[in-house]
Specification:
11 helices, disordered C terminus
Length: 311
């Protein structure tokens, strides 16, 4: 599906052929997501599953809501966690210790002190290594990327808030809009349509690679923590289900990152969907997830020094 988006931008194959492949790919992936994967999940968990045959618009609508919600939750947490991780303001000295109030009632005071000192030493060593790594060329490179993405994440939260407050959905893709603003500000002659096509192609590729990589890393950590020999089959099927919904939802949201002339076939093949609903739903869930993550990290960051002072 992502290849078809790139084909739309590059104009590979004829319009009729691209439309046909869009239809085939969507029906196949929806068949897998709605029927095949749930059937096998039910096979390993329960004896059978009840299936319904829906139109492509209804199927995409239901899959899209779940997928967009998942993407918004992950993006909201990532938008807060990225600045928290990379910006030097958040480098802190001192152990991040879990709430041990119940355990402290059962253990000896000296053993508790010894444990806290050990954790503090480990944390200080980790912080020291991180600071030393940040002084290397590779560390400076990743720090630069970290600051860049931190600014982008803050901007994303701000724009999501604006979109919700003013109930708006962008009609122009971000690349074309950004180039138009820059050209008008600098007052130079520039082929906006030509360069927006190539930059959009690069941007879509980056979005595809980074989003899939981030999703796979997150899901791998989660499923590794809960996996067992008895549940491995179900976990693989659930992973396939989540990945499929994520891909379909990515197409729904990525459509806005494409120039208008490349959205035609994507819009036609997806049917009469309310695209503005999915973008607004993403903004709402994204903002809720981001604000919840900010509150969680703030409380965790504030709680650690207080515990450290009680030792």
């Amino acid at each position: 599906m992502f290849e078809l988006i790139i084909f739309e931008i590059l104009g590979v194959l004829s319009s009729t052929s691209r439309y046909f492949h869009w239809k085939v790919n969507l029906y196949v992936i929806l068949l897998v997501l709605i029927f095949v994967v749930p059937f096998y999940i039910g096979y390993f968990v329960v004896s059978n599953i009840r299936l319904r045959i829906l139109s492509i618009e209804q199927l995409i609508s239901r899959v899209g809501v779940i997928g967009v919600t998942l993407m918004a939750l992950l993006s909201g947490f990532g938008a807060v966690n990225c600045p928290y991780t990379y910006m030097s303001y958040f480098l802190r000295f001192g152990a991040e210790v879990l709430d041990l109030s119940l355990i402290q009632q059962e253990v000896d005071a000296l053993e508790e002190l010894n444990r806290q000192l050990f954790l503090e030493t480990v944390d200080l060593h980790a912080t020291k290594e991180r600071i030393e790594y940040s002084k290397t060329f590779q560390g400076k490179y990743f720090n630069f990327l970290g600051y860049f993405f931190s600014i982008y994440c803050v901007w994303k939260i701000f724009m999501a808030t604006i979109n919700i407050v003013f109930d708006r959905v962008g009609k122009t893709d971000p690349v074309t809009r950004g180039i138009e603003i820059t050209v008008n500000y600098l007052g130079i002659q520039f082929d906006v349509k030509f360069w927006s096509q190539h930059i959009s192609f690069i941007l879509v590729g980056i979005i595809i690679v980074t989003s899939i990589r981030g999703l796979l890393i997150t899901l791998t950590k989660f499923f590794y923590a809960i996996s067992s020999s008895k549940s491995s089959n179900v976990i693989v099927l659930v992973l396939a289900q989540i990945m499929g919904m994520y891909f379909v939802s990515s197409v729904l949201l990525m459509r806005m990152s494409m120039p208008l002339e490349y959205r035609t076939i994507v819009t036609e093949v997806l049917g009469e969907l309310q695209f503005s609903f999915y973008h607004r739903w993403f903004d709402v869930i994204f903002l809720v997830s981001a604000l919840s993550s900010i509150l969680f990290l703030y409380l965790a960051h504030k709680q650690a020094p207080e515990k450290h002072m009680t030792l």
